[in-house]
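Researcher: Quick one. two chains, 784 residues in total.
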Amino acid sequence: MSDIRKRRKLKKRIHGHTFPRLEEAGIAKEFAKVYELFFKRARDSILVYDEGGNIIEANDAAIKTYQYKKEELLSRTIFDLRKDLDLTKLQFSRALNEGIIFETIHFRKDGSSLPVEVSSQSTNLGAKKVVVSIIRDITSRKQAEMETERAVIASKAAYEAKSEFLSNMSHEIRTPLNGIIGMIDLTMLTALSQDQLDNLATAKTCANSLLNIINDILDFSKIEAQKLIIRSAEFNLKSLIDKTLKIHYHQARGKGVKINCSLSDQIPDMLWGDAHRLQQILNNLLSNAVKFTDQGSINLDIKAIHRLGDNITIQFSVADTGIGISELEMEKLFSSFSQVDGSTTRKVGGTGLGLVISKQLVELMGGRLLVESKKGVGSVFYFDLKFKIGAANNEKVESLKHKGAYKTDRDVKVLLVEDNLVNQIVIGKMLAELGYKYEVADDGEQALNLLADNHYDLCLMDIQMPGLDGITAVGRIRQNEQKRGGHLPIVAITAHALYGDRERFIKKGMDEYIAKPFHYTELFDIIEKLLDRFGDNQRSIQHVATKEEADTVSELQDFLRDYAQEVKTVLDKITKNSQVLNRQIGEGKLAEVEGLAQEIKTLAALISADRIKASAFRIQLAIRRGDLLEAGELCAELEEEIKKYVAIINRRGV
Amino acid sequence: MKILIAEDDLASRKFLFKLLSKYGKCDLTIDGIEAMEAFAIAHDLGQPYDLLCLDIMMPKIDGLKVFKTIREYEEKQGLDDTKKCKVIITSALSESEVAFDSPGTGNEVYETKPIDSSRIKEALKKLKLI
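Model:
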């Protein structure tokens, strides 16, 4: 018997069986029976409450679920099953009025809990209004949800790890490959037989095409991971086009295909956009065109289609007279990893990613890559992009030079925070010469202590210090000022002048920034500038010379004595090393000499002996070049510098 | 010609050294700090470099920062564009992956690795060094 016939027969039976009986007088009774059956047999718990939330009826499932005996359950209320009193009241009153479905936590007799989905609805039982709740245990659903969520998080993390890995790899993969290509190239410059030259040329081509493939894959995964960023900078469109065409001329000529280009003169030379990505797109389209065209020509057309104020929309199109694409093939065209005809991969090469990458790049730049093609006739790929028109002037900022005497007419006290003893002396001396009074703190901690009890008009803060470093110290100082008021002008001192440092330090609460080594005039300019800026709250404070200052001087002398001892120890080491160095240069031990020079450099940095350090470094550079002769000369120079330094230390009488 | 090469990868460094030694005396540095030190020392000695071959991804201080710092230094010294050090910036990354937005004074060339002898020659010509 067919399914349909079976179903029909069944339907007839139900109709014939049920309806006549429903029409009978005992309908209500029958219904009550059915409902009772539902109620008893239901797998979900069913509870009936009165208006006060007292349980007045419960089914078997409810008794099983909540682990109460039936009479126990009938003496409880809704509030015994739930914890959150207010929310329960609210939901119960909504159930009474309009009906409600919600998820919550219910508690069993033993205090254990279960997640449930509750559907509550009020109805009339005789004259009484009651609430009927159907309660479904959703423990397993919740578990499944949690597992799904966990799985999603895990897979997301794995995906992120993958793209992170790839972007890190991009450098790691390319570096050795670059090495291979470079070394092949160098070898090709030496005297070789024709055969050897051929072999190397092939090796170089292979390495280059491997690099291209890797680049494609990395770009693709970057786009997938949404890590590819479109940048904007000024560029010259004409030279970009020239550069791009040059790459393809050679191959096209080899196939007897001509490449024509027209660039509308309505397009200004300088535009703002991502030149590299634009070139990548054009490269992909042109290389495809060359690949799939065996006769005829390729035309690159660039024309302005819309200009409004500073913005210009430009259309790029690459047309070829190649094999063309059928409508069926068109669908596969822009999908990942597929060349239209699988067999072409082997014939023409490539990863099949070029078009996908190009399409996505165009979209990232706000355009759409479109194609029109006819099988056997040729294809046109084209896209519109909007650019801002560039200005191309570079204005130079004249630096203002300070004129006049370098001696302050102010009565101010500076706090110098600096861990390096030499710098303490050098900068201290500069400050004294410029007419500032000053005190020294060895680190951030000491600076904070001094600032708590004393007034300073300005602070010079070294950034790199052991213990409490400069940035942290400044943070604390600014914090204290928020409580107490006032603003101490602070100048950051750093070892290297790096681009962007100034902004970084100012963000951290400094007012200015100066890089070591600096000239005392620079220091003067900066201090005076800051005192001008923050001058009002300081001019009134009169500095009174105290016994403290005399103490400072004698302390300074003590410390100079201690310090000189340290410097001497380091200098002794340097001297010994330089003697060994001299001998090893004579013996031609390149690696050893470089190591020793490095050691001298490090020691010299320790005592801020810049000239010794520079000499040692120059020896290193000469050795890396393999120039022992120059290294020898520089070694003599180094010994000279060491002598000078020793003399200075000795002359200071310490 | 005085040339400073800043490159942490041994193979690339060797390549540039061997290739550029034909054009001048090369100093080799292996990280950003060394490069800046060498640059400063050369200025102090009054024999600044004519060409700096600068890798972007280097330890300690990256090439971009070195580049901006030396240009800032030259600016402070009041050097005009013709006296500034020519720079070939090299990187395994493609140009747009590094935020390279120097004003086009014609003093720098950007080269994506791999660099071969002909591209270096072209770059030197472009910088009017040969």
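The beta strands of chain B are 2-6, 25-29, 51-55, 86-91, 108-112.
Researcher: Thanks, that's what I needed.
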